[in-house]
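Title: Request for sanity check on HAD family phosphatase prediction

Description:
We are preparing a figure and want to confirm that the structure record we downloaded matches what your pipeline produces today. Could someone re-run it with the sequence below and paste the raw structure tokens into this thread? We only need the token string, no images.
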Amino acid sequence: MIKLIASDVDGTLLPEGTADLNPELYDVILKLKEKGIVFAAASGRQANSVKTVFAPVEQEMYFITNNGGYVTYRDEVLACRVFDGKTIEEILAYVRSLENTFYLVTSPDGDYTDCQDKEMLEWLREGYRIHIDQIGDVMEKADCLVKISAFLKDKDAAKEAVPAKTLFEGKAMVTAAGDHWVDFTAPGSEKGNALKELQEHLHVTAEETMAFGDNNNDIGMLKNAGESYAVSEAREEVKAVCKYILPDTNKNSVLKILKTLL
């Protein structure tokens, strides 16, 4: 019997960079909870962005955000993994050296950038619904950062993440979190680790867990679920670790699977 469902958001429940979820999912989440099945949104996005997407049911579900670096339920923080200051300096120096790249940093109290790209800021605020503030230097927030995100406008994130993984091995988790997003999180910040912790917290086994995803940052999570689904548009390496592949490109395909549990 399934007791826990964890789903990626961008590319799985929503087109990347949007926020208008099918409202039918809210009703399904509530009905699943009535049956004793917990729903968790597991996203590379920042907490405030994901919670905005699920606002009508925010108090009834769990949030694995920032690729597992920040895990919450209502007002309770279940996990918060932060960088050390020296690593932040090194990552920012690396990200700032990349051409045509926008970056932002995330702390438990908000999201910040010192980039001046107005078009990107508008997209992040209106598309992802991120409450992002412009400040003089993001190092002002270096005392408590859970994620540094780089948007590489002209490059494939999965390929660009490879050299960064080598460069920051042991210092940070580096993953492709979208077509152009490369995320840097503190050691141990990974959706798979966060799902394991949530399973322990809820006394749920992997066999009692269902998960959905599409990108490389979902692989650990999918491996820790007995019932794992990749959407049809998922990367091939994601499909390779999943038990099932959803048959069509309709974003409601996840919703259809959830409704079978009801």
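Thanks, this matches our download. The longest strand covers residues 101-107.
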